[in-house]
């Protein structure tokens, strides 16, 4: 875009045209303050995902992108919970070691996170290794994380339930990763229970499981999921009234 230097044009350009050019230049400048949250903002998106059912998000992603983005039946909550947030990704690789700093990076990732973060950890061959426990959960709770999703085990579940910090994992085990694993990296793409997760992706969880929505598709997927939710919730009373699921599906086109 060419810059407009009004000062050099005063002798040649009529005043009205100068004013018009100035208005165009000002309009092209970035706003001094951010606009209020709209449908594409993180705040609006997360609010939407916190009020929509995970099953509808899963269906919406298949409809919008033809992709399955749900984690498997193995990924279960330590207690009933619902949350949505932005992924902070961490990966641990299996390695026997005596290095006291081998896992420092996974702790640093927590201390760099904050409100609306979801800690997504992939633990290599970690079905019987606790990727996190009460201490890490306490730190996430203190920093207002939305929750954690661990492709691996979790421990100290009684304490995590006591403080109300929601964790989904592939199992509950008493073991430790200390001395058996090394931090591989944070804020990189990880494969969590078979699903690719990038930093900043939307992670939503409820009693039905966990879904991951790429940030670039989050707005479209949410709108579709909300529409599906509305139809399904409208169908309950209709089915009860007519005592027919076939008629309800014909009317609403949702199953």
Structural class: alpha/beta
Query: How many structural domains can be distinguished in the coordinates?
Result: 3
Poorly predicted ranges (pLDDT <50, ≥5 residues)? Answer: 1-39
Under CATH, the topology of the largest domain can be stated as Glucose Oxidase, domain 1
Note the gap between the termini.
51 Å
**CATH second-level architecture of the largest domain:** 3-Layer(bba) Sandwich
Mean pLDDT: 85
**What is the name of the CATH class of the largest domain?**
Alpha Beta
Largest sheet: 9 strands, mixed
- Beta-strand percentage range: 15-25%
What does this structure look like?
The chain has 255 residues and is an alpha/beta fold. The protein has three domains: 1-30; 70-213, Glucose Oxidase, domain 1 (3-Layer(bba) Sandwich); 224-252, no CATH class. The protein is 36% helix and 24% strand. It is built from eight helices and eleven strands. Strands 1, 2, 3, 4, 5, 6, 7, 10 and 11 form a nine-stranded mixed β-sheet that branches. α7 packs antiparallel against α8 (245-252). The termini are far apart.
